[in-house]
Amino acid sequence: LGYHPEMIGEFAERQAASRSIQNVAAISAILIFFLLWVSFGSVRLALLSFVSLPTALVGGVLAAYFTGGVISLGSLVGFLTILGIAARNGIMLINHYQHLEQYEGESFGLGLVMRGARERVSPILMTGLTTGLALVPLIISGNLPGHEIEHPMAIVIVGGLITSTLLNLFIIPSLY
To answer: What is the distance between the alpha carbons of residues 42 and 102, in angstroms, rounded to a whole number?
Structure first.
């Protein structure tokens, strides 16, 4: 009587950190949509950019699955990083389309989309390549002691970079 079990230590801290990251992710998603709406001045373009963000996470999920299926605190940070990179690339691409339409007199259509994608392929590829190449040593070194957070995070980020780059170069232009 008067005794009860309690989860303490590393497990409880990990659960609290996961809940905290999930709350931050939900608030961030709402803020991202609002900022996209304000930036583009259009709900349609904000939805286009926003709906593409979860698709960018597919590569991170697949990479985590094929390398052991570990979703840790580091992996969650990696997913948030991928969301940021995918949002940045999508915003850069859609803003360039708007710039071509409004300031350079390009009429809406296939020519606008092709020109905009061609002019933004370098920045999008450079973002993905520089980030991915910087993380390769963490992936190669494996899950050594001291890399318990960085290794799963690097795997998720590199996997997500692949899908988010493909998404920004092929899917967003066709949907625009």
So the answer is: 14
Cα dihedral: 122, 56, 161, 99 (round 10): 20
Q: Is the pTM of this model over 0.85?
A: no
pLDDT of residue 57: 87
User: CA 171, CA 176: separation in Å to the nearest integer?
Assistant: 9
Express each pLDDT in 107-144 by its tens digit.
888 999 999 999 999 998 998 899 889 988 888 887 77
Question: Is residue 158 a contact partner of residue 139, using CB atoms and an 8 Å limit?
Answer: yes
Helix (H) or strand (E) holding 86: helix 73-102
Average pLDDT, stretch 8-23?
83
Q: How far is CA 141 from the centre of its chain?
A: 24
Query: 33 exposed, middle or buried (CB, 10 Å; 0-12, 13-18, 19+)?
Result: middle
Tell me the C-alpha distance between 23 and 19, whole Å: 6
Which amino acid type is present at position 56?
A
Both tokens assigned to 18: 């996961």
Helix then strand then coil, in percent of the chain rounded to 5, is 80, 0, 20
